[in-house]
Design goal:
Layout: E1 13-17, H1 25-32, E2 36-40, H2 45-49, E3 54-57, H3 65-68, E4 77-80, H4 91-94, E5 99-101, H5 108-124, H6 126-134, E6 150-154, H7 158-169, E7 173-178, E8 182-185, E9 189-193, H8 197-201, E10 206-209, H9 223-228, E11 234-237, H10 246-255, E12 260-263, E13 283-285, H11 296-313
Parallel strand pairs: 1-2, 1-3, 3-4, 4-5, 6-7, 6-10, 7-9, 10-11, 11-12, 12-13
Antiparallel strand pairs: 8-9
Pfam family, one: 2-Hacid_dh_C
Protein name: Phosphoglycerate dehydrogenase
Keywords: NAD, Oxidoreductase
Length: about 325
């Protein structure tokens, strides 16, 4: 374990990379009380990094850091205001001694609720009910039950586990897919190894993508994987858009091999207005907000402030990312 922290008599420099909105100053007060805080957008990041010991990546979708890395001459620790850290996993950072932490745990339950909502929307055909209401049409229809239906969750980290627990609680039969296969997992029961994923897809009514984006998961869901899915099964993606080869998904939806898709993340992102995914039947698209509950920004800043307190005290940091894996290993 590395030794964290600085001389508490010194006044460390903390760079905060933000987009349009700044972190709430009141939430940042525990940091500003003990540090010089430099707020910056991407264009000013090199100047802000010069002499900074800490970087708070509040703009969690940014790709600015690799271009400013040359200025990181004193950097000790980077904290990401997100669970995924794929934009930060460029070679120079991976090979450095800089510690990376993330905001694991904040979005688990909200994303699980989103997944359940989308599965229920598919089963009860809520989009068609809204269309009929819009047209003032009273039309009786039957709907599916979700109890007893099978769900494969691809990704067995904290978000995948929160999804598994919630779907199990409503009576669905949940299994997982991860790097290692096992039959005694406390949340999934059975976890299928990635190399055996096609066989697991063949028996799932719903497939939920909740894996981190790494070299091994990039483009994992391609034409071969979609062909392996049970005909008419639905896909829910709350991981990263790049887990899916978008053109192959479009083809699978058009052919009916995939019965529908709820996509909170897409590739490219944002989705261009003329992209065919917008108009395909059975597709629901949301703008990467499945975990964004009222107050989530404040919760992210609070998590950083707590980790900053630990850093100053020389205590172990929370949610330390294994830069080789690209995520926080499960304990």
């Amino acid at each position: 374990m590395r030794s964290y922290g600085v001389n508490v008599e010194a006044n460390p420099v903390v760079a905060v990379l933000h987009a349009e909105a700044l972190p709430d100053p009141a939430r940042m007060a525990p940091v500003a009380e003990h540090a010089t805080v430099r707020y910056t957008r991407r264009d000013g990041l090199p100047d802000a990094l010069d002499g900074a010991e800490v970087l708070f990546v509040y703009d969690f979708r940014t790709d600015a850091l690799p271009h400013a890395w040359h200025a990181a001459n004193r950097l000790d620790w980077i904290h990401a205001a997100s669970a995924g850290v794929d934009p930060l996993m460029f070679p120079e950072l991976r090979d450095s001694d800089v510690t990376v932490t993330n905001s694991r745990g904040i979005f688990d339950a909200p994303i699980a609720e989103y997944v359940l909502a989308q599965i229920l929307s598919f089963a009860k055909d809520i989009p068609e009910s809204l269309r009929l209401q819009r047209d003032h049409v009273w039309k009786h229809r039957d709907s599916e039950r979700i109890a007893g239906r099978s769900v494969l969750v691809v990704g067995t980290g904290p978000i995948g586990r929160a999804i598994a627990r919630l779907l199990t609680a409503v009576g669905m039969k949940v299994s997982g897919s991860g790097r290692r296969g096992r039959d005694d997992d406390p949340d999934f029961g059975t976890v299928t190894a990635t190399e055996d994923l096609p066989a697991a897809l063949a028996v799932a009514d719903f497939v939920v993508l909740a894996a981190p984006l790494t070299d091994s998961t990039h483009g994992l869901f391609d034409a071969e994987m979609f062909a392996a899915m049970r005909p008419g099964a639905r896909l829910v993606n709350v991981g990263r858009g790049e887990l899916v080869r978008t053109d192959d998904l479009v083809d699978a939806l058009r052919s009916g091999a995939v019965g529908g898709a709820a996509l909170d993340v897409v590739d490219p992102e944002p989705l261009p207005p003329d992209h065919p995914l917008w108009d395909l039947p059975g597709v629901v698209i949301t703008p990467h907000n499945s975990g964004d509950f009222f107050g989530w920004q404040d919760t992210l800043v609070d998590a950083f402030a707590e980790n900053f307190r630990r850093w100053r005290a020389g205590s172990p940091l929370e949610n330390v990312v294994d830069k080789r894996l690209g995520y926080v290993p499960s304990s």
